[in-house]
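Researcher: Here's the sequence for the chain we discussed earlier.
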Amino acid sequence: MIKGLLSIVIIAVLGITLLSIGLYRFAIQPEFSQTITFGLMFVGGLMAMYVMLAVFYKGLTSRP
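Model: Thanks. This is the structure I predict for it:
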């Protein structure tokens, strides 16, 4: 159980970090390559959504 929770937390931190880097490059450095910027935002957003789904699934299927 601890391994699963730890992997969810690591994926969440990595996803939010990628999303933040993408948003920073979009807002602060508009001359930077848009393809890389949107790629970072896309991958970070997917990872964050995956973690939300994993947490909801874990919460729905856990037995009290």
